[in-house]
Amino acid sequence: MIGSAFDDLVVSLQCLPSVGVKSARKMALQLMIHKPKQAQKIAKSIENALVNIKQCTQCSMLTEYDVCSICSNEARTARYVCLVASPYDVMTLSRIPTYTGKFFVLNAMLSPLDGIGPEQAGLLKFQNYIEQCSDVEEVVIALNTSLHTQATLFYINQCVERVNQSQERSVQITTFATGVPIGADIDYLDTKTLATALKNRIEFSG
Q: What is the residue-averaged pLDDT of the chain?
C-alpha cells in the first residue's frame, strides 16, 4: 500500500524474536512517522555493530577485540568452562558471583539435515579449546534440552573422552543441579535458581 521500501522494512523487522507482521508494521510506522531521527540512529548503530563486533578467537563470545573481556579476565579461573548456546547466556551467567570460570559459546546445535556439522556448530573449535587449555578440569553443560541438543551432547562427550585419552587427563563433564526444570531456557530462570544450580552442579551422564 505504501511502497516496496516500507514493505522491505516490515519484512526485515520480522526477523526479531516474537515480532509478527502486525507488530512489524506498527514498529515501522512508529519509526517512519514519529521517530525518524531515532530510526537513523538505529540504522547507524546496527551498521557499526556489524562492522566492529566479531567472535572471540578463544571462546566465540561476541566482542570488539580479538579476545573477549571474560577470556582476558585473570580473575576468572580456566579450570571450569561453561558451554552455552548463545552470547546472551554468557551475559546472564557471568553475573552470577558463585561461578568464576570461563565460557564457550557454540554457534548452533548439531543438525546434519540442516547442514550443521561439528565445524559449523563450533564443536571442532571447542575441542581445540580443551586440547590447548591444559588447565581445564571441568566442562559445565548449560544447554537447553532438545533433540539436536542430545546429538550435540553425545559429540561433546566424545570430544572430552578423546582429549582425556590422548593427553592422559581427567576432564569432567557436569550439568546444572536439580531445581532447573527440564528444557527450561536460561533466559527465564532467576539469578538465585541459576546460582544454586551452578554451585551444586552434578556429573553429566551421557
A: 90
pLDDT value for 94: 92
Mean pLDDT of 108-121: 92
pLDDT, tens digit, 9 for 90 and up, residues 52-88: 999 999 999 999 999 999 999 999 999 999 999 999 9
Are 46 and 75 found together in one domain? no
End-to-end CA distance of the chain: 55
Q: For residue 91, what are the CA distances in angstroms to 23, 70, 133, 164, 186?
A: 27, 10, 23, 30, 11
For residue 105, being part of any structural domain is answered with yes
| pLDDT for position 158 | 93
How far is CA 35 from each of CA 52, 99, 178, rounded to the nearest angstrom? 26, 42, 47
Same domain, 193 and 143: yes
pTM above 0.90, yes or no: no
Q: Could you write out the DSSP letters of every residue in 131-192?
A: HH-TT--EEEEE----HHHHHHHHHHHHHHHHHHHHHT---EEEE--TTSPTT--GGGS-HH
In a domain, 57, yes or no: no
* Residues 85, 113 share a domain: yes
- What backbone torsions phi and psi does residue 163 show, to the nearest 5 degrees? -65, -45
Number of domains composing the chain: 2
